[in-house]
Amino acid sequence: MTSAASRKVVLFLPPYAGKVYGPPLGLLSLAASLRQAGYEPHIIDGALRRDWLHAIEEEVSNCLCFGVSLLTGPMIHDAIAASRLVRCRRPEAPVIFGGWHPSLLTAETLREDFVDIVVRHQGDQTLVEILDRITSGGGLDMVPGCWFKRAGRIHHNPDRPSIPLSELPIPAYDLVDFDAYERVTGERVAPYATSIGCPYACNYCTDTVFYNRRFNPCDAARVVEEMTSLVRRHRLEAVSLVDSNFLVDTDRATAIARGIVDSGVRFRWTFQASTDLLCRMDDEEVRLLAASGVSHIGFGTESASPEVLRAMNKRHQNVPDIYEAARKCSRVGIRVMLNLILGYPGEEERHRKETLNVMGEIASLYENVGFSPNVFVPYPGIPIWPELRAMGMTEPASLEEWARIELGANTLPWLRGRVFARLQRNISYFLLDDRVKKVRAQSRSRFVRSVLGAIRRPLAWRLKRSLFDLPLELWLSMAHRWLVVRRSLLTGKGLSHVLRKYS
């Protein structure tokens, strides 16, 4: 398919909307395995490099292959543009797709004329074996973990069993220009995985399908050694764990925290977990997490309606656990983000009101709690798709169509027009009330607290009665934000961290 002389492998992550979170861990993991096998990985992060098309054009001139890591959503547009450029500039180099979206919709991805091979699921050994076959002139038949095209026909190979994380090399962090990421993000932070997979089977979650509910952890001692070495070597301020559910093994989590404390290396670290697992830990164990540097935990609470939680197959969570998780974290100074999914199939307005009422009460009790409410997104492969089709949803049929599926974009036929507008206003009022409440609690001025208390009364009244017509408070909030941004542009002064957070 291409010259065997080259050992250069170009790996590309398309740009994505929103904040840059740090270097692409998936590509760094692939790069480590490729380098160990004698290949020369070159990573292009489209989130960092605005000239990524130019960079690709330069790098692929002498490459062995071009690899793209892909999530569902708008980044698909740039993946297509990049792949077509490579097909034009270096047609003999195979284009290999991998990541969540191609793994979940492999045949559909391979139907595109610019895709030659798809690496499914965990790709470290699979990609190495593919390249070994290409350089030796062999075919890809029976290479576990990949599907490919030959003479226009798609060939299916069996999946490759997951490899324990402890058997894989450390991601190639030495390839990262942390100074460049710091200039963009404002801090020196790196993503890191101590485990992959989650044993739960939530109906809305692609993790259930991608990892088949298997939890694949790295042992605590190696995690501590790698994290502390990473911080020392690259002068990091923080490490952001990308584990699906870090606390699945609470004994391992405790051992990691204790190891970090004993190491004497000080840094902040964050992770995601489910509330039921944190509630299995006693207060002293949670205190140990804080002492080790845990500054923030994200919880996939999704709903506070027992009916909706059952529909989500989220039976491991109950409402008292949400309160208890917030309490345990509040006592030791760990910030909490409660993620919410609204508009889930079968959810009614009474369920949404129940959820927001509970969340509002939790916020009143614990100042460390924040919220990330989102409308349900029908990602590919999730277990609930048969029900979605029965409710009138049409599944996208191509890469281009899946590019329209993204967090924040509403594609739900049962959430249209006035119903959706009402939900949006409800969310806006909830977040505005929570913001005013927090600022009031943190203010030392009696006058400011009095004014904010007066502002809160109509907000609370609206939320209690679900009355969101003529949203004067939202208009005033938007006008204030616009004036502050305009003043910042005129004076050259930076926005406050509070405004940046909510703008």
What do these coordinates show?
The protein has helices at residues 25-36, 52-59, 75-89, 100-104, 106-110, 124-136, 178-185, 207-210, 220-234, 250-263, 275-279, 283-291, 306-311, 319-332, 349-365, 385-390, 399-402, 417-442, 446-465, 472-491, 497-502, and strands at residues 8-13, 40-45, 65-69, 95-98, 117-119, 146-150, 153-156, 189-192, 195-196, 216-217, 238-241, 268-273, 294-302, 335-342, 369-375. It is an alpha/beta fold and 503 residues long. Among the domains are: 8-156, Response regulator (Rossmann fold, 3-Layer(aba) Sandwich); 187-376, pyruvate-formate lyase- activating enzyme (Alpha-Beta Horseshoe), CATH 3.80.30. Strands 2-1-3-4-5-6-7 form a 7-stranded mixed beta sheet, with helices on both faces. A 6-stranded parallel beta sheet has the order 8-11-12-13-14-15. Helix 10 (250-263) packs across helix 12 (283-291) and helix 12 packs across helix 14 (319-332). It starts with 7 loop residues before the first strand and ends with a helix. The model is unreliable at 482-503 (pLDDT under 50).
Short précis:
This protein is of the alpha/beta class.
Question: Any key phrases for this structure?
Answer:
six-stranded parallel sheet, 21 helices, globular, 15 strands, disordered C terminus, Rossmann fold, pyruvate-formate lyase- activating enzyme, alpha/beta, 503 residues, 15% strand
Set down the secondary structure blueprint.
Blueprint: E1 8-13, H1 25-36, E2 40-45, H2 52-59, E3 65-69, H3 75-89, E4 95-98, H4 100-104, H5 106-110, E5 117-119, H6 124-136, E6 146-150, E7 153-156, H7 178-185, E8 189-192, E9 195-196, H8 207-210, E10 216-217, H9 220-234, E11 238-241, H10 250-263, E12 268-273, H11 275-279, H12 283-291, E13 294-302, H13 306-311, H14 319-332, E14 335-342, H15 349-365, E15 369-375, H16 385-390, H17 399-402, H18 417-442, H19 446-465, H20 472-491, H21 497-502
Helix pairs in contact: 1-6, 9-10, 10-12, 12-14, 15-18, 18-19
